[in-house]
Amino acid sequence: QVQLVESGGGLVQPGGSLRLSCAASGIIFSIYSVGWYRQAPGNQRELVARITSGGSTNYPDSVKGRFTISRDNAKNTVYLQMNSLKPEDTAVYYCYAHRLTDSWGQGTQVTVSS
Prior knowledge:
Order of helices and strands: EEEEEEEEEEE
Number of helices: 0
Number of strands: 11
Helix content: under 10%
Radius of gyration: 13 Å
């Protein structure tokens, strides 16, 4: 059974940084594409960052240059380093893992506010 557990969310001021972590179990982590989506109230869930099993990454323009995704296959963990945070980055951030199907974490709240 796949389990994805996020951590690292919280309240941060505009311009600040946060690092999210997602620990996976129940899968051969290294062969999965993993990443992060986010969902703000009233909005659809949107892709934030993705990293393939080979290490290729992609980001939407809204976070490019500010967010960095990385993975540590030895620790079965994917990270999201978020810098220069803006109020519009406020959302629940979800970790996912994809092979043939998608698995999701429970989400972690990120609030950017002064």
